[in-house]
Structures are given as C-alpha cells and as structure tokens.
Write a structure and sequence with these properties.
The protein is α+β, with helices and mostly antiparallel strands and 309 residues long. The protein is built from 6 helices and 8 strands, in the order ααααββαβββαβββ. The chain has a 5-stranded mixed beta sheet with strand order 1-2-3-4-5, covered by helices on one side. Strands 6-7-8 form a 3-stranded antiparallel beta sheet, with helices on one face. It starts with a helix and ends in a 12-residue tail after the last strand.
Length: 309
Amino acid sequence: MINFSERKERNNRLEEQLQFMKAEYQKQEMSKEQLEKLRAKMKEAGREVDRQHRKNGLVKYAAAAAVFFAVLLILPNTSPAAADAMERIPLIGPLIKAVTFRDYAYESERHMAHIKVPELTLEDQESDNRSHLKRTTEEINAEIRRITDELVKEFEANLEYEDGYQDVMTDSEVLATTEDYFTLKLNCYQGAGSGYEWNYYYTIDLNTGERLKLKDIFKEGADYITPISESIKEQMQAQMEADENVTYWLDDEIEEWNFKKISEDVSFYLNADGNVMIAFNEGDVAPMYMGTVEFEIPADVLDGIRKYK
C-alpha cells in the first residue's frame, strides 16, 4: 500500500520533472519546424484528454501524461537530458473502464424495461497488481450480472399478468477515476404502481487491486462510525432547517425509523476529492419522496483516523 507521504513525494518528483521538461522546451534547442510539430501534438493530446474526460473520467495527472507522450515523440532525439528525464517519469496506473456488456430492452403498452449491464475492463497495461485487479473486476462483473439477470427474470415472469404493468431500468455511472480509486455506481429502478430506486457502489483501490470496504479506509481499531454518523445527523438537521420540504427521520414518533448511526456495510464511495460519500436508498433514512440521498463527510471530520486520502 502506498501511503500518503509516499504519494506526495512521488507527485513532487513528477512536478519537478514537469518543470525540467518545460525549461528544456523553453530553451528552444529544437528547430522551428520541430517546435511547431510539438505544439500541434500537445494540442491534439489536450483535445483527446478532454474528450476522454467527458466520456469516462481520467486518472489524476492524465493530462500531464498526454503531454509526456506528445513530447516523447520529439524531445529524446534532440535533448539527451530531456530523454533521460522521460525515462524516470513514473507510469500512470492501470485504468479501469466501464463498457456495456448487455442492453436488454422491452416495451409494450403496460410493460417497459431497459436494463443496461455494465462490465469493467482493464486497459492493456502490465502492473504488479494486475492479477488482483483482474480478479476484483471479474467478481464485480459477476455480481452485477446476477443482479441484472434477476431483474430480467422477474420482469419476464410478470409479463404473464395481462392486467398489470411495470417499469424496470438499470444504468451505470463512473463516479470517480483518480490516481488511487475507481468507483462505479449501478442505478436500479423498479416500478409497479409505486416505484423504488436503489443503487450499488463498487470502489476499487488501484494501489492494491482490491475492492474497498469502508473499514479499509481507516486505521485499525479506529471508531469511524461515530464521527460519520454525527456528521450525517448534522447535515440532515441543517437541510431540514433550510428547506421545509426536506425530511429525514431523526426525531420521528416511530422510534425504530429514526437514524441513529451507519452500519459497517453501509453503501459508500470516495469522490474525486477523496472524501467519503455515504449513500442511502429510498426509504432508508427518509420518506420515499426524498429518493436516494448522499452525504459527503468533510475531511476534517476524519482527521487522524484515516490511513490515507
């Protein structure tokens, strides 16, 4: 596991190398023609980074990596010092992408289904933990297929009820792709009279290749449940005071409905800033009309008990 200080040191080295390459570039040791070619490659790489970012999101420093690859085409042949620096640049970790594995669709007057099944795939890049990543992505893919296969099976079984109607939908979203984490969200909706929405979250530690559990983020033996729960209660209360249409079960007369604390297996993910996001499905902590709700836990709430960010 790469800790925070090690990553900071590595990123500092990366920044130093970036500055060195910038200085080499500004020396203009290359011909005018070579410089123009380099500028064109940088622009091309920038457009590609922007396109991919809008499509899937990128690992931290991907923009810098794109510039490196553009510079790689020219600088090593014109500046030995720059070529040596290129060899020392740390490789960007393997990327995980989400592609559509299956797209099940059915529509009639009373029945509608659109079940898009994502599949996690690995970039063709070698790494020390590739075998762990491969195993983890295969396990997640199998779990997603079980969930969606069951929805399809249930939907098709209900087609025989001519007087009934139903809506079933699933979709997915990549919530974060950073230097350290990849998070996929599977959205599910099922309606028959009334509707119900729920979500699944899959966060992978790119340093270890393992799927993260909430407890994995914190130091051994640390009480993370109490500070997270108290932060959520404070946010619930603040939202209700700011908007009369917002309701959470904090002081409901039905005591067992009231939110007291999170469970160890609560749904969570890490956002692009590395902050913990706690997610609840419809009806978990609020009336159904509130839908699914999420709470971002401020970094200072967890100071001193997180292993790393």
